[in-house]
Design goal:
Elements: E1 2-8, H1 29-42, H2 47-50, E2 52-60, H3 68-81, E3 83-93, H4 100-109, E4 113-119, H5 123-128, H6 135-146, E5 152-159, H7 166-177, E6 183-188, H8 196-202, H9 211-227, E7 231-234, E8 237-239, H10 246-252, E9 256-260, E10 265-269, E11 276-281, H11 285-289, E12 295-301, H12 303-315, E13 321-322, H13 323-330, H14 336-347, E14 351-354, E15 357-360, H15 362-366, H16 368-377
Parallel strand pairs: 1-2, 1-9, 2-3, 3-4, 4-5, 5-6
Antiparallel strand pairs: 6-8, 7-8, 10-11, 11-12, 13-15, 14-15
Helix pairs in contact: 1-3, 3-4, 7-9, 12-16
């Protein structure tokens, strides 16, 4: 089973934290749709199109800048070329694009999950992030989405902003929960180099929130959302039972996915199931519109590299990762040095290890990246991989 990701690179303006590929040239949207359909057609009668596609995710950028008719053209092309048996069809949107007619159009197209970038209901924080919507527009969009008939949708929250207090974050959380969303993706703000925030940091005009304060924010988010009845099923994701994101779970489980559009990533196991390839479509809209769909990057991944990646992805989820899976699928054995570390982290309350299943606790999730890095680096080069 596989998934398809379609990258729509258009945005109204640049959010201060975003390092995804995007452009603000909205006059190119029709040309982009035609180029995308051409790229889709290139996959006809290939082993990519033969595999059953269970999820489609249209992200960006801002996919909700495309009209329903443009989205319909794209989806019809996907239907013609690929073998679809969809469990989930997701489209990302911004609050300022949400209108009842647009939501009805998405449902008629077959979209059954929306992902909306609210980020905050605090007007000052929205301005700091340079979001295109206001707090009032976010409230209206939440009301419309809740009344739309979509059973599953997710809204994004960003915490850990410079100068953001726990009281401010708590107010935001209460505002989100007042709408009773089935899923919330909560991300800690990261300052990426090639962004507005990155430049502010380099120039000494921005002081990120300390690690200690960010950990306090994480605790408040996790405790508040789990107490509301949501499962904390991945470091940044919370869902009511049965409302987890299917497409994203496929990423974490190392299942095949094909990326379409400029700047989209793909991952595909080779036929031997011992190696895989990951590639990035060149993030260049001009070349893409000219029919140049070449890859900017491509890497062949060996089994031990895939094992380390699966270990990392698995530990970020509530399901954890079993050493049995690592051994049988990836030929990776946890050695004594790693077992000693696991035992130490178990004693400190950051990790559990029961019948071969490794899982991080809430305390462990706060420092997940550090634990995962330690665990991977402890394996000796001459130990079985």
């Amino acid at each position: 089973m596989a998934g398809i990701y379609i990258h729509v690179p258009f945005c109204k303006q640049a959010c201060s934290y975003c390092d995804f590929y995007f452009v603000t040239r909205d006059q190119e949207r029709n040309h982009y749709v035609e180029a995308l359909i051409t790229q889709i057609n290139h996959y006809a009668d290939t082993f990519y199109s033969a595999e059953t596609i269970k999820t489609v995710y249209i992200g960006g950028g801002t996919p909700s800048l495309l009209s329903i008719s443009q989205l319909k053209k794209i989806y019809r092309a996907v239907q013609r070329v690929f073998n679809l048996d969809l469990e989930e069809f997701t489209l990302e949107m911004n609050p300022d694009d949400v209108e009842p007619e647009y939501l009805r159009g998405l449902m008629s197209l077959g979209v059954n999950r929306c992902s909306m970038g609210v980020q905050s209901f605090d007007e000052d924080l929205l301005k700091f992030m340079n979001r295109s919507h206001t707090a009032d527009q976010a409230v209206r969009a939440m009301e419309l989405l809740g009344a739309s008939g979509f059973d599953i949708y997710t809204v994004d929250l960003i915490y850990g902003n410079p100068g953001q207090s726990l009281n401010s974050l708590n107010t935001d959380l209460k505002s989100f929960l007042a709408f009773d969303p089935p899923h919330i993706s909560a991300y800690s703000l990261t300052v990426e180099p090639r962004t507005r925030l990155g430049k502010m940091y380099e120039n000494g005009k921005l002081k990120p929130l300390s690690d200690e304060k960010t950990a306090e924010h994480f605790d408040l988010v996790s405790e508040t959302l789990t107490e509301s009845g949501m499962n904390h099923y991945e470091v940044s994701n919370f869902a009511k039972p049965g409302k987890e994101a299917v497409h994203n779970t496929r990423y974490w489980n190392h299942e095949n996915y094909l990326g379409l559009g400029p700047g989209a990533h793909s991952f595909w196991w080779n036929e031997d199931q011992k190696t895989a390839i990951r590639w990035l479509n060149r993030p260049d809209l001009r070349k893409y519109l000219s029919g140049n769909f070449e890859h900017a990057e491509a890497e062949n991944l060996r089994l031990y590299e895939l094992a380390e990646e699966r270990l990392m992805l698995g530990l970020r989820t509530s399901n954890g990762i079993s050493t049995d899976e690592l051994e049988k699928k990836y030929e990776y054995q946890v050695d004594q040095h790693q077992l000693n570390y696991i035992y130490h982290q178990s004693r400190s309350g950051k990790l559990t290890y029961d019948e071969g299943l490794l899982r991080l606790t809430r305390e462990g999730l706060k420092v997940a990246d550090a634990i995962i890095l330690d665990l991977i680096s402890l394996k000796k080069p001459d130990a079985p991989r």
